[in-house]
Each structure stands twice: as structure tokens, then as C-alpha cells.
Write a structure and sequence with these properties.
With 191 residues, this protein is of the alpha+beta class. The protein is built from 4 helices and 9 strands; from the N terminus they run E-H-E-E-H-E-E-E-H-E-H-E-E.
């Protein structure tokens, strides 16, 4: 008799969410969030990937030099084997006046389990604490590929809205107006 060895998938909250540090470089270099994990050569001998945004995020995370500058932050979800299950990278924009969510990624075998939603919640919490600590009023921006419907759904559920197309690259700007909570706990109109 064959037994069902299907492993149960842990919930997004069961991972250890930590700030990425130099000791996580090897785990990040092995992180795979793109399916397939590499581009292939197409008919015209050009590299092709069905979801190029996945490959771009994967490459960007793998190539990071840790520790990051003070203006950036990378939070990763580690599983029990200390492998990266998910990641979120955020930063101030070049002006230092707006917050950018640069990347959210989930390991291929764990996609659809709520890790990206948890990563976005963590990013928003970090941004909220930063804006309160430094008395900032800033929007939160992200660039999402217009064919990346999963990310659009996650960001829309968190209150982000499509703003405009960036360029011919397929990226769109999404934003969420951030307002710091009232220190006296009063309800603010529109919040």
C-alpha cells in the first residue's frame, strides 16, 4: 500500500522573517522565484522567458551585496532549513521623499501560499514605523509588470492603485497614499 507523502505547506506566518545580513548571501544566491529558473534561447537566438519580471527580480535579489545601504531594507522569510522562502526589498526613492517597494518574491514551490501578501504587510509595517519615527508624509510606490496579475491582485488588496505606465518595458507605477496614524487615535477623514 502506498502512503501519501504530500508534505503539508506551512503558512506564511510560520517562517522566520528577518533582515537579510551577509550570512544570508548564499541562501539568496540559491533562491529561485522564476519558473523556469533561467531564460532559454528562442527561435531568433534571443533569450526568452515567459515571465521576464520573475527573472529580473530573481537576478536582482541574487546579485545584492549585503549589507544594504541605510536607505534600503531587505526582509527575507527563512524556512526551517534556512532557505529563503520569500523576500521583500524596499527603499526610499532617489529624492529620499517617497518609499519604493522594489521587489516582492516567493520561492517557486511555495507560490500561492500567502507569502507575498505577508511580505507586503511587513513592508507596509516597516514603512509605517519609519514614517511615524521621522514624521514623514509620503506615498508608497511600486513598479509592477502589466502582465503580472498575481502581484497586481496582492497590491490592489493592500490599497494600491494603478497610476500610469512607466515606459515600453511593460512596467506600471502603482501607489498607495500613506498617512501616518493620528497620535490621539482619532479617525481621520478618508482613512
Amino acid at each position: 500500500m502506498l502512503k501519501n507523502y504530500a508534505r503539508s505547506v506551512p503558512k506564511a506566518d510560520s517562517y522566520s522573517w528577518v533582515d537579510a545580513a551577509p550570512e544570508h548571501v548564499t541562501a539568496l544566491q540559491h533562491f529561485i522565484c522564476a519558473d523556469p529558473p533561467k531564460a532559454a534561447y528562442g527561435g531568433l537566438r534571443e533569450k526568452y522567458h515567459p515571465r521576464p519580471w520573475e527573472l529580473e527580480v530573481q537576478s536582482g535579489l541574487r546579485d545584492l551585496r549585503l549589507p544594504l545601504p541605510d536607505s534600503e531594507r531587505l526582509v527575507i522569510a527563512l524556512d526551517s532549513a534556512q532557505e529563503v522562502a520569500g523576500a521583500v526589498r524596499l527603499s526610499f526613492d532617489v529624492t529620499g521623499e517617497q518609499m519604493m517597494i522594489l521587489a516582492i518574491a516567493t520561492r517557486v514551490d511555495l507560490q500561492g501560499q500567502g507569502i507575498a501578501t505577508k511580505a507586503l504587510q511587513i513592508a507596509l509595517d516597516i514603512i509605517e514605523r519609519t514614517t511615524v519615527a521621522y514624521a514623514l508624509e509620503c506615498d508608497i510606490w511600486a513598479k509592477i509588470h502589466r502582465e503580472n496579475l498575481r502581484s497586481q491582485k496582492v497590491f490592489a488588496a493592500a490599497g494600491f492603485e494603478w497610476i500610469e505606465s512607466v515606459d515600453k518595458s511593460g512596467l506600471d507605477f502603482w501607489a498607495r497614499l500613506f498617512s501616518a496614524p493620528d497620535p490621539l487615535g482619532r479617525k481621520v477623514a478618508g482613512v
